[in-house]
Predict the structure.
Amino acid sequence: MDERRQLAQELDEFQQQIKELEIHYEQYFAGIEKREPYNERKDIARRIRHFTNRHIVWTDLKFRYQSIASRFMSYGQYWDRILRLIDDGKYHRHTSKLKTTSPAIRSSITKTIDPKLEATKLQQELSQARNNCGLSGGGPSAEKVASFLAAQREKIKARYGDKPIEFSVDTSGDKPRIKVSLKK
């Protein structure tokens, strides 16, 4: 029974090493790591080849070894294909995913904007747009704009949740309006 336990432990180590190697390759493909983890891959491949010569009596452990070996071969083919694409200059790293901020950070950034300052800014833009369209009068006051923005925030929060929103002045119609849109 001791040999069975030792064999199961070795298979656990194989699984862990393959998982770590997969992470290292993904980091390399994303541009985080500067060098391909070639030596780690070579060591695991050598150990798997050495393991194939071993006679495994227990069916469950034999099946587990075969699935680990086939998974490693599949990963190897995938990694080789990506490396070929990199060599040919056809692989584009998805670095934009690394630079995006999380939704929690984005919502905290948008919440830090002072509503009064935003209302004053929009009121000035609205007044200038009204002048550009040839309309008389200065438009609504900063307090009216602030109350409108607060009401719109509540409506959008009730409908869409805590998604970040953005207010802008739209001059596409007869007269300028405040446009509300969800940030993406």
About this structure: Strands lie at 165-170, 177-182.
